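User: Second chain of the day. Same drill as before.
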Amino acid sequence: MTIFLSIAVLAIGVLTGLLLNSFVIRPLQAARQMERLGRQQRDFRRQREQLEAKFVDRAGSSGKPRGLRWSDVAFEDEVSYARDRKSGQLRALVAIEVCFEAIEGGGMEEVEAVSNVRAATAEFLHDGTAWTTAGRVFFNLAPKGLIRYLHTDLESVERVAGVV
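Assistant: Same format as last time:
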């Protein structure tokens, strides 16, 4: 009889734990995660101008593409957010149009396509405390297309209500 009572008490304890997890703990964790995401998105919006300037500086000084100088970068307004599936790091992806000019002696002076505007995506990273950029650019992909292309590494993150 005591074995059955012990099993019943154990079963009630497990069931209570499962219910507590499902109806209390998970919703609280999700709410905290949404709050953190909203804060990170607002921070990006506030710092965007400085982040864009840092992006242009870093991407332009990367030496890529070889023989070309970054002459102009136009940023689109819309931001797509994605999370790295392994690290959980948040990324802000912004569509850009890049113009280049040939560097004298760089071997690209005679290439007609140098002056063509290039579509690309600029990447910004949230390191857990602040937004930053390494000047990483993905040519020929819009932000949503980049997320689809890197679907094994990235998952799309929806905008939090109230964050533009």
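The longest strand covers residues 68-84.

User: Great, on to the next one.
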